[in-house]
Amino acid sequence: MNKIAFTALIALPLAACNSNTAPGNDREAQLDPPATAAPIEDAASALANVDPGLMLPGTMNDADLAALGAGQACQFRLTEVAFPSFVYDGDGGGAIKINGKLIPVTADGPGSYANGELRIKTRMLDDEGDAGLQMQEMIVAAPRAKDEFGFLGLYHLSGRRSLILAGRMGGPSANPCARASALRRPHHFYRNKQMTDTRPIAVFGAGGKTGTELLRRAIARDIPIRAFEHTVPGPGERVGDFEYIECDVLSDNFAGDLDGCRAVISTLGVAFGPGNAIDPPPLYTDGTRNLLEAMAQAKIDRIAVISAAFVEHQSSVPAWFELTAKPALFNILEQMRSMEVMLSDAQGIKWTAARPGWLLDEPYTGDAVITDERLAEGCFRCRHADLAASLLEFVCEDTWINAKPAIGRPEAERFESPGAIKAELGID
């Protein structure tokens, strides 16, 4: 099956080159009728009668791109000379061509898109093709398929524009397709077993801003959650129908409540204020230690926590922030540093310490830039919702193991100015 699918994949871009419909390129091209756009359908109808093993990406043409409004979108190409198979923007919209149909998709996490049971994930790689284009991985989980299909291709960005189909029009951003990854694959086509772990993920701090956003992302991805919160919210304030458990990580014995969970995500954090700045509660130190001890009793080996990009010097952070705001956070950042050391010293634990930029309570974008340990240039802030989606992806996809991914994105001046940050910190 692998060999047959790989051969079919090679044929797709070659077929696109054999029939050149661009006017003026050569005499033979002028004899062909103009290209027409493929129909646009939801995944359920487009793939209804297709064998799951044959749900492979096709190659779009100019008419397809025009119909999608994707002439300037990010493109995943199977070869340097091929038209794209998948296009997407920085505002949550995208489309893939399968079975001669254009299927719109919407972002449901960093580098993750879905339409019904069809799911697509993309990751930027650190290799380049022969023509200098950056390599990119695309994984397609098709409806009814037992395996995932993986493809190595090339990333191309011809401009910046929201897709007409699924785009949520938004402000400008940096490279909306950027994702950092050390992942390498030796072939253009491979198959992965889909994750079928249906055990819940234990989320601590589920009632906070990031925790609440994480539960919302989990609902969208149909991921079971066991929500732990210091004070359980009332029925009308809860997210979804998840199980809520009242828990104080500093004093309670909660190991038994972790039974049956596959991983832990801690969205616990210390709110900034004069009292906490001087003497912060030991959530990052004692709280994390208690989590690790409870995990050992419950035989759980996967944890993701929230640290901060500012635990070490970041060249992308404005100098005024380093001089005014960061000193006020000294004691809290010291706890975060201790937490990271504790995790790196823990035996038999797969940990991730997410390092977001300065958190921002704005809607989810799906175009956070994730880099190793230090924020990408110009990515000073990080939205709670983007952080939540990243944490969920790290655990569900088992990525960024024993690592400190920095997460951020460029924001409008009104969110990044000294006045805005000082107002949030309560600094005159």
Kindly describe this structure:
The chain has 428 residues and is α/β, with parallel strands linked by helices. It has two domains: 2-193, no CATH class; 201-425, NAD(P)-binding Rossmann-like Domain (Rossmann fold, 3-Layer(aba) Sandwich), CATH 3.40.50.720. The chain is built from eleven helices and 19 strands. Strands 1-2-3-4-5-6-7-8 form an eight-stranded antiparallel β-barrel. Strands 12-11-10-13-14-15-19-17 form an eight-stranded mixed β-sheet, with helices on both faces. The chain has a two-stranded parallel sheet with strand order 16-18. β1 and β2 form a beta hairpin. α4 (209-220) crosses α9 and α6 (283-298) runs parallel beside α8.
